[in-house]
Amino acid sequence: MTLIGWTQIFLFALILLVVTKPLGSYMLKVVEGEKHILSGVLGWLERLTYKLFGINPEKDMTWIEYGQSMLAFSLISMLFTYAILRLQGFLPLNPMHFSTEQAPAYATALTPDLAFNTAMSFTTNTNWQAYSGENTMSYLSQMLGLAYHNWISAAVGLAVAAAFIRGFARRTAGGVGNFWTDLTRSCLYILMPMGIVYSLFLAAQGVPQTFDAYQVASTLEGAKQIIPLGPIASQEWIKMLGINGGGFLNANSAHPFENPTPLSNFIQMISIFLLPAGLTYSFGKAVGDTRQGWALLAAMFVLWFAGTFLCYQFEAIGNPNMQDQGVEITTAALGDSGGNMEGKEVRFGLANSALFAVVTTDASCGAVNCMHDSLTPIGGLVTLLNIQLGEIVFGGVGSGLYGMLVYAVLTVFIAGLMVGRTPEYVGKKIEKKEVKMAMLFVLAAAFSILVFTGISTVLDFPEKSFINPQGATWNNVNNGGPHGLSEILYAFSSATGNNGSAFAGISVNTPFYNTLLGIAMFIGRFLMMVPVLAMAGALAGKKHVPATSGTFPTYSWLFVVLLTGVIIIVGALTFFPVLTLGPIVEEFLMNSRRLF
Amino acid sequence: MNELDIITPKKKSRPLLDPPIVKRALKDAIMKLDPRLLAKNPVMFVVAVGSLITTVIFLRNLVSGTASATLLFQCQITIWLWFTVLFANFAEAMAEGRGKAQADTLKRGRKDATARREANGKTETVPATALRKGDIVFVQAGEVIPSDGEIIEGVATVNESAITGESAPVIRESGGDRSAVTGGTTVLSDWLRIRITVDPGQTFLDRMIALVEGAERQKTPNEIALDILLAGLTIVFLLAVATLLPFSAYSARAAESGRIPDVFSLISLLVCLIPTTIGGLLSAIGIAGMDRVLQHNVLAMSGKAVEAAGDVDTLLLDKTGTITLGNRQAVEFVPAPGVTIQELADAAQLSSLSDETPEGRSVVVLAKQYGLRERDVASPDLQFIPFTAQTRMSGVNVQGREIRKGATEAVYKYMRETRNLPVPVELERIVTTIAQAGGTPLAVADSTRGMLGVIHLKDVVKGGMKERFIQLRAMGIRTVMITGDNPLTAAAIASEAGVDDFLAEATPELKMQLIQREQTGGRLVAMTGDGTNDAPALAAADVGVAMNTGTQAAKEAGNMIDLDSNPTKLIEVVEIGKQLLMTRGALTTFSISNDVAKYFAILPAMFGTLYAASPGQHGPLWELNIMRLHSPESAILSAVIFNALIIVALIPLALRGVAYRPMSAQSLLARNLVIYGLGGLVIPFPGIWAIDQALVLLKLAPSS
């Protein structure tokens, strides 16, 4: 670990802290339809959208109506993307002729299971990629099939968070807001303006934006190299800001075309945490006590910092087996290039790779600038656990906030009784319904990750079978020993957490994994959103209980400690056994010089 | 007796571990193994199913002749798993036992009474159980009142000890607020004609028996919510443990060595992880809470009411009897100009000598401070004039002097009309000052000297109340004093007592409005009441404590009945409610944080053989055995035993409730978090270690 490394990490935190408040109050104004800086400029577009789709922006929806609209919209969007992917061979903007007779030899076929997996993946804001973009997707598929979802899945997340916030903020109300206005306003006033600035910035840094076909170059050795191109800048920004993470190119943000400079790298990391950080402030402001929002943000920062410290520390220590081989890894004099550099970009070094890995897994982003499969066991453990905690450390757009709030509700319920009152959070009594929904939320994630990973570690298919050509499901992993288990576990954690990053090292483009991972993504998104909306509905209908000195103060440091403790204990207790058999035993084995 | 003792009624203490109760609880613990009863508690049900599975496998292995070392381990695991269930049952039975013992006492009091029923002008003797609502019965001295009713004629002294445990007789009479009688109580003198107001099986005594027995016990809202949380956590851990089979199968394959864990260690891990501590003690905590209320001689109609008491934000307290001693007392003599305080005190004392009211006595007591000698009340010189509602004053005629004491206007008028004595302006000023300070001025006059001065009568706030209200404020509870006094007087007393607010010139309607206003603002309200006109407010309040001396209507409207009829007890009830919730939270936190240590005991034991360098050696995961437990068997056993014993160890805490001190939520939380959160995290480490040492010492588990 180096001073310059830590300086960048602290600068990162500082910038986030500074933008949280202005961004948060702006976002709250936007979703609540109040007057703000852009309502004059873009208001006509909003009204036009409502007119065009026959939306009554004044209608207040119950949580059931809200949920139905959200599910219907997501389903139709998903079918739309599925159709585009399956039909891309017949559609324009396909200079490399993917899914046609003239497709290049390296092209991957968009089979029904891959198209399902991909459509589900982008609808659920996961951006799990069982394909590599440059070998599979036409420019139209990238833009209309995938980038479209990057926008609207982020906006759906914002909408659900807005509904959840209203659940706490409203008093004896029947509804939780209007899904269509939340969706429209989020796209129009939050994502679009930021997107214009951000994509121009990326293009200026060197990210390509073109419809030209891939270039072919001859290397010095005389080999032919294909250089993929495309409209990358217009997709890159929303990949980060919408916390989607699905790269245009397979190497994702490690590729110079997606992430060309140290500055673009820094901004990309900031933009992952930007909206979730702002939303904590929006929440505090909406419930009339900004301290409540800061407390949530503080818990996020604590968990983020702990993860960053651990990951950076262990990456800096590196792998003793490499040292045994006489590999020179102690070049700390050059700044930050000692330790475990396997799978990392030299351009970014240890600090920025470790930070990126933690940020992208804390948030449900999944963009990567280093290969997580190559992290040290403990470095990998941090990324795994980050996802398994439920994508609540900043988390996804919207989903991070409501996930954290679900944990706040659980914390208040478990420990809040200790103040001698039935639990309440920001003035709302936490009762049967809330606890039930919070437990469903926790259970859905635990079920999907544990059971699906469990199935995939033991299911035996005949070799060359359609469902899994590799035969037994554990044959799909490339690594022996405990690392193989980590790879399967990571895949299902990432899918369920709607993260989308991959440990890689596992061949997942088979009907078995495509389908099961698709289901995991569905569970991780919608089976968690619905309980959240149900809770929002129940909370909105409740009276507001004024705070007294007898009320559990949910803005104090004590609460932050407690919340962090509950997240770690509930999260870690669920996953600690399996992590023992994965990264933890791997760490012991690595230090005892045992290789697989 | 210090001041707090005066307002805190002596609790009827029953030792926590009463031998007969323990004996009965031991028996009940076994009876509660009934699967239908177990199914009500998801956590314990899972433990019972796990125990059943291990029992079956153990028995099978016993028959098939497995190695004795293995059998010893499996036998112990099975036994301790059953003990876990039994300990939880025992906790619940202990909590119920106290109520049941009380119910038995009550049942003994419910004699097979007969009643003299009046019908069609004739009197017939029928069994008490045949009485219906509306029947008229006649009860004489020495007879037991057959059922609950309303007195329509007569006055009698009644012994209500069967209900209240208080042997001093009370007076019951027709009309007014003391007309309700309870079945099972005994008429000591005179006679009563009573209209029965309930049908058989619905009497107060019946309901009371059912309540203390816990027969009608329903889970409270918070208990249900907590049950859901515990069931949810149980499923999470079920998933985590069940999936360990495929995971360890994968690992064993990848390691090409090691065993996958057997059913015994998997079930042990599951039982240790699911929240058995709180799951086992949850219902005991609830029952004990109700029981604690009962020990204070308050009958809570439901656990929900006790829980609501913990949540109360606003306490409506009647001034008289709750905040003040109930009677005004003389606190000061203020002489008129030209009169010495000695003269005033002397006249005041003379005029009050025969006044047996508390006010009158307090004047005599105050006068003693001015060194006045004792006087002979029986002296023929003294001719006492008693107080009447018409004259509104009392006094004495002595040696031609007419001394009068009473309401200022009445005394002024008397002196003006009979003696034509003027009222000094200064005196008027004194009177106004006293009235403004919330006191009651009594004028004293002497026909030979004119107006002597004023006695300052004042409501005296009970000792310790001010401190009590400060505590309540720290707990976030607002106190509102309810009084019929005028706003001026009310404000003075309110500020002296330190209540947060007051409602002066209170009428039942105003009281009702106040409750509704508080509730609309999201606050929970508690109040006490006894009159029929209190009934609507009692019903509307979240916690309504009716006085046992009150009317039937009041008792039916409230959700608690104070058998001692002591309105101050509302504060204790609130504290018990808080304590109940705190105990639940503390044990939940304790239970969950316990899991960390159990992982470090069981996981290395389960996975200790995986990835071993050579067969027979410990694998790398044995390193996680940070407690340095002797062997995998002893590690798993120690965790299971600790998990079972901690339930027993915490039974007293569950029954007694965690120590409660009035303080702010923040400090309460910090305190409890350190004790139960941090304690729960740390305690199992030495606990499991010690059990491991003992097991190896006793050769119940292998030493390596």
Largest interface: A-B, 68 and 80 residues
Rg of chain A over CA atoms, rounded to whole Å, is 23 Å
Task: Give the beta-strand count of chain A.
Answer: 4
* N-to-C CA distance of chain A: 28 Å
Number of strands of chain B: 21
Largest sheet of chain A: 2 strands, antiparallel
* Percent helix range of chain B: 40-55%
Multimerization state: heterodimer
Unreliable runs of chain B? 1-12
* Overall morphology of chain B: elongated
Radius of gyration of chain B: 35 Å
Overall 3D shape of chain A: globular
Distance between the termini of chain B: 62 Å
Major sheet strand order of chain A:
1-2
Give an overview of the whole structure.
- The complex is a heterodimer of chains A (596) and B (704).
- Chain A has 596 residues and is mostly helical.
- Chain A has 18 helices and 4 strands.
- Chain A has one domain.
- In chain A, the strands form 2 sheets. In chain A, strands 1-2 form a two-stranded antiparallel ribbon. A two-stranded antiparallel ribbon of chain A has the order 3-4.
- Chain A starts with a helix and ends in a 5-residue tail after the last helix.
- Chain B is 52% helix and 17% strand.
- In chain B, strands 1, 2, 3, 4, 5, 6, 7 and 8 form an 8-stranded antiparallel sheet that branches.
- In chain B, helix 5 packs parallel to helix 11, helix 22 packs antiparallel against helix 23 and helix 23 crosses helix 25.
- The longest helix of chain B has 42 residues.
- Classes of the chains: A mainly alpha (596), B alpha+beta (704).
- Chains A and B meet through helix 14, helix 15, helix 16 and helix 18 of A and helix 8, helix 9, helix 12, helix 22 and helix 24 of B.
